[in-house]
Design goal:
single chain; mainly alpha; 2 strands
């Protein structure tokens, strides 16, 4: 069990509840890796190959926020707080970045849903 997850039993209740007290090492690592891919210009490889997205993101920091929001919104965690779809979350963020930079979605990609781009 992750050190950031505690299990406890509610008094008079036979079920076990899980309380997450922070990001698991896996979730923290997923965010760190995603930040590294964005910074190195390799996010969404090979979808964004040949697209220099840094100028667009540098001119509009709120778009960087949206990029990270999509990754975080799509990222799913298991009961232990560990990521189960990190590459898919990266891919969906890359789809948005592709559309932002080129003005059109990549061929064959489903449109982003409102919950994917929600800013909390």
């Amino acid at each position: 069990m992750s050190p950031n997850v505690r299990r406890f039993v509610m008094p008079a209740a036979p079920t076990v509840h899980v309380v997450v007290t922070g990001l698991s090492h896996g979730a923290s690592g997923a965010l760190r890796r995603f930040a590294g891919w964005v910074a190195r210009g390799s996010v969404g490889h090979p979808l964004l190959d040949g697209i220099d997205y840094w100028d667009d993101l540098r001119d509009s920091p709120s778009q960087m926020e949206t990029l990270f929001a999509i990754f975080a919104n799509v990222l799913e965690l298991d009961d232990e707080g560990e990521p189960v779809n990190e590459k898919y979350a990266e891919h969906r963020a890359a789809v948005w970045l592709y559309q932002y930079c080129t003005g059109s979605a990549p061929d064959g990609e489903p449109s982003l849903e409102s919950w994917e781009v929600e800013l909390y």
